Amino acid sequence: MTSVSPPAKIAIKKIRPREFKPSDIGILALSVASSFSIVWILFFQLTLLSGALGFVVMWIPIFLFMYWLVNRQLFTRQVAIDRLIGSIVTLGALLMMLPLVLLAIFVFERGLPLLSWHVLTHTQQGVVYTPGSHDIGGVAHALVGTIEQVIIAAVLGIPAAVLTAIFINEVGGNFTKSVRVVVTAMSGTPAIVAGVFIYSIWVTRFGYSGFAGALALAIILLPTVTRGTEEVLKVVHNDLREASMALAAPEWRTVWSVVLPTARSGLVTSVLLGVAVSIGETAPLIMTIFGNQVMNTNPFSGPQMALSLLAYKQIKVPLQSQIDLGYTAALILFILVFTVFILARLLAGGAGKGKGSKRKALMARLRPTPGVAMEVMDDEADLPETEYEIEREQVSNAAQPRKGNDDE
Amino acid sequence: MTNTTTTVTPIKISSKRSAEDRAFRGLARGAGLGTFVILFLIGLFLLIEAIPAFRSQGLRFFTNTGWQTTGPHPTFGVLSALTGSIIISIIGLAVAIPVSLATALFINEYAPAKVLGFVPVKNFLTAAVDLMAAVPSIIYGMWGFFVLQPHTTGLEQWLSTYLGFIPVFKSSTGLYTSSFLICGIIVGIMCMPIITSLCREVFSLTPNGEREGAMSLGASRARVIRDVVFPFAKGGVIGSIMLGLGRALGEAIAVAIIISLAFPINFHILQAGGNSIAALIALNWGSGGSLGTSALLAAGLVLFAITLIINMVASRIVNASMADRR
Asked: What's the pLDDT score for residue B4?
């Protein structure tokens, strides 16, 4: 986009709010470099400090001050403040990403060396924690335990969660608001409280078992999935419900055959996100599954192990090879969570990206036409080819058919 | 004209719901009320199991600082753990709030949908924040203990040497590992995703008319944020920070890995040793006999009550501020 050059008689150079020219990139780069140098001299040469955290903590304010000052000198006060805020916000986003990147590097760096078929297929049976013992054992019992517990938790928790969401969004009634508040409050209930609760209600009577752990995980999973599902159901257009009602469908039929299929992809995403969170929980497992060293494939009796609990226990063993095994358990856990998470995003992306978004843009354009709403009912079905072709032409002609936030 | 008589029986119209529908509604209502029941049962059963501990200590359970559950004269109380939890949460929020607000603003106001035509910054950031919420707390804890801690002690040493005259930064032991500060930073990092995603939702409800109005008057983005986005989002932001606080108070495993339990009440955030309710339960589980277990359940009840109150208030604030806009 070429900006119109200002007439010569105007002395003050006008700056558009979002203008950012190559020279501005230069200013930014120089501010970064000079603030880095100043902090480096201050930090390592004058005060002999150490530690990356201290360095970053000092660098950020000095950079911000410098960047503000330079812009203040070159442009106006408003430009300086705008760019200062912009850089604070951008830095914040970068700082947010930093732990995630470092965490991923950390688990892979420490966990990968030990990851082998042997570790995946062996348990801790007979492993002694004495220096010099070569057999480090494996994580098979924990892997089996985690998978069993999460599946049981999902079977128990997900139907209840979806029904609760249906109650809030479809059935309604006097308690809708309070149920929503309670669900939000429950989602903030500490995981360890879920653990001690299951201990007091279940373990004191039936003893430690994988099933007790699954109960605790179900309590953690329930509010997460409920909230996600509720958000998804809210997006389903009322036209669809009304159309179904007008065809004399009973209420359960409307929910089962119209509302839920329409929300399918979002539903799967929120369920998978809930599962991803529950895979990694550690605290409630301490007092429900207790943990053991041998394979126990029966979740209904006797202590079981889980990957997260194994990692927690191993890093407390004062023996490097066992700590390394803990890292490996954490890596497997991370990979599991990441896989489920990516799966969830991909399934959600199926509706929000590519062809799907064109469909949505199409729908938005076609909305006033009666009858078309029924098309949305079956999310997977394609529109008739000819109609689609024609409309796609028009959509791509219309500049920017969507406004960025159609994935919500 | 032949008269064929076809008897048409009209559909019965009834405003009554069918049996199936009533069953369906009952099922959904049952699930909805089930959440109440679970919450009630949590409180009830923790209370029942905590009775021996309360009977042993009475009200001193809330004022004692030690944790001696065995022997002829057990004395234990939740006070030092409670103060520890609060200190960790305050540090955590101090870390989390600026970063979360900045990220939420970046995603909503600054992030271009695509950079260089193909990098979807906005979607990527949103996904990364969600992923951070799903990363197990054990991994945060391990990372904090093995990676972050060595990089933090330098800063802590410097702070206590040069700012030691401020009581909070004093360290009488000269040991800087396993301190409140490191726990606080990790807990802060763990709170960031929830605060960010809620704030982002709140910011995105800013009415477009006002936003465009401000821009058409020549306001810079900073001014739009200050004068349009923030005023509208105030309630929601406070609510999401409170939900983050609830999360921070209840974090067990990450704190349990980093901290070394110490029972005197301690406001020196740089000094080694500290306490927190959730970490106390995780670390002391299985030791201290039946009275010890009961005491830990009592501590769990205290934690449950506190987080429940905070979350109730917070979710009311968030729901109210969002309901206005929707």
From this structure: 64
Token output for A386: 């000819």
A42 reaches B (C-beta below 8 A): no
Q: What is the mean pLDDT of chain A?
A: 80
In the predicted model, what is the mean pLDDT of residues B218-233? 87
* Run of H or E residues at B275: none
Contacts of A145 (CB under 8 A, 6+ apart): A210, A213, A289, A296, A299, A304, A305, A306, A307
Among the partner-chain residues B25, B30, B250, the one whose CB lies closest to the CB of A190 is B250
The whole-number pLDDT of residue A29 equals 86
Compute the radius of gyration of chain A from its Cα atoms. Answer: 28
Number of A/B CB contacts below 8 angstroms equals 312
Residue A363, pLDDT above cutoff 60: no
CA-based nearest distance B264→chain A, Å: 23
Query: What residues of chain B lie within 8 A of the CB of A338, using their CB?
Result: 131
| Closest residue to A185, CB basis, from B17, B113, B308 | B308
Cross-chain Cβ contact A273/B158 below 8 Å: no
Domains identified in chain B, total number: 1
Q: What is the pLDDT of residues B85-138, one digit of tens each?
A: 999 999 999 999 999 999 999 998 888 777 777 778 888 888 899 899 999 999
B232 and B208 in contact (C-beta within 8 Å)? Answer: no
CA distance B79 to B206: 42
State the nearest Cα–Cα gap between A240 and chain B, in angstroms: 18
pLDDT in tens, A100-159: 999 999 999 998 988 888 888 888 887 877 777 667 788 999 999 999 999 999 999 999
Task: Kindly state the tokens that stand for A141.
Answer: 């019992």
**Mean per-residue pLDDT, B234-246:** 90
What distance in Å separates the CA atoms of residue A310 and residue A330, rounded to the nearest whole number?
9
Amino acid at A275: V
Cα distance between residue A387 and residue A381, in whole Å: 14
> What pLDDT, on a 0 to 100 scale, did the predictor assign at position B86?
93
Distance CA A384, CA A294 (A): 58
Q: Is A353 helix (H, G, I), strand (E, B) or coil?
A: coil
Which residue intervals of chain B are DSSP H helices? 19-57, 79-105, 121-134, 137-143, 149-162, 180-204, 208-216, 221-224, 230-249, 253-258, 277-284, 289-325
Residue A349: is its pLDDT beyond 80?
Answer: no
Task: Tokens for B278, please give them.
Answer: 């959730």
Mean per-residue pLDDT, A317-325: 85
Check if A199 contacts B (Cβ < 8 Å): yes
Whether residue B8 lies inside any domain: the answer is: no
Q: Is residue B166 included in any domain, yes or no?
A: yes
Q: Does A25 touch chain B (CB under 8 A)?
A: no
Statement: residue A37 has pLDDT above 90? no
Q: What is the CATH number of domain A140-304+335-352?
A: 1.10.3720.10
CATH number for position B81: 1.10.3720.10
ipTM over 0.85: yes
pLDDT at B278: 93
User: Is B27 inside any structural domain?
Assistant: no
Domain assignments of chain A as residue spans, ordered by start: 22-108, 140-304+335-352, 355-397
- For residue B142, give its domain range: 62-325
Helix (H, G, I), strand (E, B) or coil at A37: helix
Is B199 part of any domain?
A: yes
Question: Higher pLDDT residue, B221 or A374?
Answer: B221
Chain-chain contact of A106 with B146 (C-beta, under 8 angstroms): yes
Residues of chain A neighbouring B38 (CB-CB closer than 8 A):
186, 219, 222
Q: Which two tokens stand for residue B142?
A: 């391990």
Q: Which regions of B42-147 does DSSP assign to beta strands (E)?
A: 67-68, 75-76
